[in-house]
Structures are given as C-alpha cells and as structure tokens.
Amino acid sequence: MSAVERDPEGSDEVVDEGAGAAAGEPDDAAWAEVTPDAARRLLVAAVDAFAERGYHATTTRDIAGRAGMSPAALYIHYKTKEELLHRISRIGHDRALKIMRDAADSGGTAAERLDRAVRSFVGWHALRHTTARVVQYELDALGPEHRAEIIELRRGTDAAVREMISDGVRDGEFEVPDIPGTTLAVISLCIDVARWFKVGGTRTPEEIGALYAGLVLRMVGAGEK
Prior knowledge:
Layout: E1 2-6, E2 12-16, H1 37-53, H2 60-66, H3 71-77, H4 81-105, H5 110-127, H6 129-137, H7 144-170, H8 179-191, H9 193-196, H10 205-219
Antiparallel strand pairs: 1-2
Helix pairs in contact: 1-2, 1-4, 1-6, 2-3, 4-5, 4-6, 4-7, 5-6, 5-7, 5-10, 7-8
C-alpha cells in the first residue's frame, strides 16, 4: 500500500509502505544474537512481513514462506506469532535505549550530548527503517505482559532524553518551559524517520541525523542565550 507523505525537504512523494521496504537494509548480520540459524531466518522474515503487511494481516504461513520453511517449522522456534513480535521488539528497544544511554552518559555539555544522541538515534531509525517501523508502530499488538516490558524500556529512553534536556536547563544552555512535553516531541520527531525513510532518497541516514540534531538543538533553545 502506498501513501503520499511529505518528506523533510517539503516535497510530496509517494512512499512505498509495502514491497521493497527492506531494500538496502542489513538483515541477518543485524540479528546475529538470534540463534540457531533457522530462528534467525524466521525472525528476519517476520520483520519484513510485519513492516510490509502489518502484524495482524501477516500469517505464520507468510513468515515461514518468506524464510523458505514450512509453517510447522516456525513452531519449533517460536510458540506464537506474538512471541516473534516480542523478540523483535525487545531487541530493537534494547538497542534504541543503549543509543540514548550511551549519549546521556558521555562527556561534554548537555548540548553536545543531545546532539550525539539525536544523530545516533535518528541514524539508527533510518538505517534500520524496516525493523524500526515494526518496533515503534506494532506495540499494541503485543500481549499485556510483553507490552508492559517494552513500555518500561521506552520509559528508559524517555528518561535519558529528559535527563539531557534537564541538565541543559539547569546549566543555562537550554530554554525549555515544558521539559516533559519537549522530551516527547524530540523522541516523536526522531522515531518518525522510520515511517518515511527509503533507500535512494536525497539524504543519507547520517545527513538526516545531522539535520534533526540541528532542529532539536533549536527546539531547546541551544545557543540562543
């Protein structure tokens, strides 16, 4: 399914939300921690299927077929389709949280740390756009226990961004009247990249990261005092 979206440069373009979504994106190497090989193949296939069709429209037969396996083989490694989604979501959220925590704990001023955080966070959501689309937009498909676990990880990401913004306000670097609201705006801006990014566009993930870092620093009033 395609939809007309407006890209960050202001031009309307048709963004393919279906076939080819994973083109140019690393696959198996990014999931090296998932073993054995058959379990990893199924997970990679599930990422592509969920990103293309959505969780609810994807069947276990779809996933197994993409992996070149029989539907029965899937249940050897994953009890349910929801378990597959949870594994994908957990790994993706762990990586997103690590990016933010690494930046929050790094040296330098609050502005420097926030700049690094946004560049890295946006860059990951662009480079791994197919995975990130599933991780960020299929949360409601998880069961209550798994959803609560992932929400806790998302709170950690929120806390890391809030800490950097709060440090900047405390040190007189930033002018932010509403820290919680601004934190939400920063995270929302960053993760939305996964929704519209496509390989072969006019900007690389690194360039988009640099653009968004500049936007966020202006959002918090860095350098305006």
